Amino acid sequence: KAGVTQTPRYLIKTRGQQVTLSCSPISGHRSVSWYQQTPGQGLQFLFEYFSETQRNKGNFPGRFSGRQFSNSRSEMNVSTLELGDSALYLCASSLAVENEQFFGPGTRLTVL
Amino acid sequence: GESVGLHLPTLSVQEGDNSIINCAYSNSASDYFIWYKQESGKGPQFIIDIRSNMDKRQGQRVTVLLNKTVKHLSLQIAATQPGDSAVYFCAETPSNTGKLIFGQGTTLQVKP
Questions:
Q1: A48 Cβ contact list (under 8 Å, min separation 6)
Q2: Could you give the CA distance from residue B23 to residue B73 in angstroms, rounded to a whole number?
Q3: Among partner residues A42, A56, A106, which is closest to B99 by beta-carbon distance?
Q4: With contacts defined as CB-CB under 8 Å, which chain A residues touch B47?
Q5: How many CB atoms lie within 10 A of CB A112?
Q6: Nearest residue on chain B to A5, alpha-carbon basis
Q7: Comparing C-alpha atoms, which of A92, A89, A90, A80 is closest to residue A33?
Q8: What is the pLDDT of residues A62-101, one digit of tens each?
Q9: SS3 (DSSP) at B52
Q10: From the CB of residue A58, how many other CB atoms can be counted at a distance below 10 Å?
Q11: Percentage of chain A exceeding pLDDT 90
Q12: How do residues B3-53 score in pLDDT, each as one tens digit?
């Protein structure tokens, strides 16, 4: 069974631009969560989707948004990029809420 | 804010010795706890989990201990191997959410 896949793996953007990251969960998994990882703040929860509905949201500004499609694939969008948005963005999937979460390799975003 | 803390940022052990990584959590509503291992350039990898109705759970070479009285979680790795070198994160999940709250991570260095 294929693992969680994320595209692209690496991305370079400039301040003010927007970016869309994609996540394909493990087949059969309906819950997808997104996390931001930085050296200073560690791993921080962004949001969680289950059956196309956002169930939980972390403490990030409205520039960060996401969605989930009927096939459970998910995207997250960051608008008006700031230098501080440079991070590794990780996606995790699970069968349902409160089940073991499996992480993808992440998308490394660099904002110049 | 919510946080799960780890006591030591770095732990250095000799190959073959046992390793113990500690973590303190703060959210009394959390009922599911997980240890993840993250190698350079990869996403976190699930190691072992434990629910709040248990005190101890064993896997292959790993044991997780949960002390709810003092809100303490530990990961024990038996016969530590060079391949165990990585950053280890503890995470907690508040009840009925898919949100993982991560600690800052402990870097395990295994000396040959």
A1: A31, A32, A33, A34, A54, A55, A56, A57, A97, B97, B98, B99
A2: 5
A3: A56
A4: none
A5: 10
A6: B43
A7: A92
A8: 999 999 999 999 999 999 999 999 999 999 999 876 778 9
A9: coil
A10: 16
A11: 88
A12: 455 557 899 999 999 999 999 988 888 889 999 999 998 999 999 999 999
**What is the H or E stretch that residue B66 is in?**
strand B62-67
Q: Per the CB < 8 Å rule, is B44 touching A90?
A: yes
Q: Are A11 and A110 in contact (CB under 8 A)?
A: yes
Residue in this structure with the two tokens 């703040």, named with its chain if needed: A41
Closest-CA residue of chain B to A50: B98
* Three-class DSSP labels, chain A: CCCCEEECCEEEECCCCCEEEEEECCCCCCEEEEEEEECCCEEEEEEEEECCEEEEECCCCCCEEEEECCCCCEEEEECCCCHHHCEEEEEEEECCCCCCCEECCCEEEEEC
Q: Is the pLDDT assigned to residue A50 strictly greater than 80? A: yes
Tokens standing for B83? 């391949």
Amino acid at the residue A68: Q
Which of B43, B91, B98 has the CB atom closest to A56's CB atom?
A: B98
How many Å apart are CA B74 and CA B44, to the nearest integer?
Answer: 17
Looking at residue B74, its amino acid is S
Whether residue B43 and residue A94 make contact (CB cut-off 8 A), yes or no, is no
